[in-house]
């Protein structure tokens, strides 16, 4: 037996239960992992509340790092004792041990620690596809990135600086603004005291930006559209404030023939080849020292309800880890 978090109903943090579970031996194509560190992400909240559907009872958690304990038939790219990490579906990372498909795990370079990997796999791969695939940044652009002091945001600040990109980041306090600037954000906008659209137009001499990366959702959607230059792209990759309601396509035409996309990590990493390419890019920027996660808090796995409550309050910055 092993300990894991399970939900039997959707709801608030209180629905998560710390229970005993069986961990089956790996079948063909599977491995069993002992987790050393587990990442906490806002997508976990979506699954807990039922915004994203899954059959119940169910596990939670999309990323973790650990050690391979057993391998099933046909598994050749990892072996018992290897250090590995992953960010994948289905949820289930909130666990001491887990048996899962081997094709979803990646061997960790020796220089990358478990906590770094658990804090970077989902968030780092997210920034990789946003910056290197969804809207490919060449350097020299000025971009708008919402929630710049969050886990994804602080990685984006650093990666933008490494690419030679001017990043405008929105934050909810002066303290978060300072943190974002320390990590490479060129300009910050405190959305509680400043008008986002006016400040973006001021910074860009009225031109607007070619791309907005928005994980907030309904609260910022129209501000994001209004910050775009003609032919600009709105990248809506999250719903922290709630999902964007239906809107008329004329909203895009009237603002200059805009583009809108709703990407997901798992569409971009849909094959083993694509996943390995994305991870190689992420591991390279980590090993270069140009990007590193800021781990703001560590919680015991059994105290996951407190971790979720803190995340949802928007009181946190950087990455949050759960420790088995």
Automatic annotation (TrEMBL):
CDD domains membership: QOR2 (cd05286)
Residue span(s) of domain Enoyl reductase (ER): 11-322
Entry-linked SUPFAM superfamilies: GroES-like (SSF50129), NAD(P)-binding Rossmann-fold domains (SSF51735)
Annotated InterPro entries: ADH-like_C, ADH-like_N, ER, GroES-like_sf, NAD(P)-bd_dom_sf, QOR-like, Quin_OxRdtase/zeta-crystal_CS
Keywords: NADP, Oxidoreductase
Domain of life: Bacteria
PANTHER family, alphabetized: QUINONE OXIDOREDUCTASE PIG3-RELATED, QUINONE OXIDOREDUCTASE-RELATED
The protein's name in its UniProt record: Quinone oxidoreductase
Phylogenetic placement of the source organism: Bacteria, Pseudomonadati, Pseudomonadota, Betaproteobacteria, Burkholderiales
């Amino acid at each position: 037996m092993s300990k894991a978090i399970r939900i039997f109903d959707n709801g608030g943090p209180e629905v998560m239960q710390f229970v005993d579970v069986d961990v089956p031996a790996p079948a063909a194509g599977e491995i069993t992992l002992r987790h050393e560190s587990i990442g906490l992400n806002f997508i976990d909240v979506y699954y807990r509340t039922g915004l994203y559907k899954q059959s119940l009872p169910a596990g939670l958690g999309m990323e973790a790092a650990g050690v391979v304990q057993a391998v099933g038939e046909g598994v050749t790219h990892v072996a018992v004792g290897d250090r590995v990490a992953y960010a994948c579906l289905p949820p289930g990372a909130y666990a001491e041990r887990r048996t899962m498909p081997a094709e979803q795990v990646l061997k960790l370079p020796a220089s990358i620690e478990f906590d770094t990997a658990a804090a970077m796999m989902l968030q780092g791969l997210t920034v990789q596809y946003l910056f290197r695939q969804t809207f490919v940044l060449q350097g020299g652009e000025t971009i708008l990135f919402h929630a710049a002091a969050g886990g994804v945001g602080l990685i984006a600040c650093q990666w933008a600086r490494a690419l030679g990109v001017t990043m405008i980041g929105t934050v909810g306090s002066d303290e978060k603004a300072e943190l974002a600037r320390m990590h490479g954000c060129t300009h910050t906008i405190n959305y509680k005291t400043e008008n986002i659209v006016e400040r973006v137009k001021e910074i860009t001499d009225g031109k607007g930006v070619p791309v907005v990366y928005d994980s907030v959702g309904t609260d910022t959607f129209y501000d994001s559209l209004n910050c775009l230059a003609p032919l600009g792209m709105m990248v809506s990759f999250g719903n922290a404030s709630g999902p964007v309601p239906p809107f008329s396509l004329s909203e895009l035409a009237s603002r200059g023939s805009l583009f809108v996309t709703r990407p997901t990590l798992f569409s971009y990493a849909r094959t083993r080849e694509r996943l390995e390419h994305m991870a190689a890019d992420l591991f390279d920027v980590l090993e270069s020292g140009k990007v590193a996660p800021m781990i703001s808090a560590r919680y015991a796995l059994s105290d996951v309800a407190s971790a979720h409550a803190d995340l949802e309050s928007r009181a946190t910055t950087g990455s949050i880890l759960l420790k088995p």
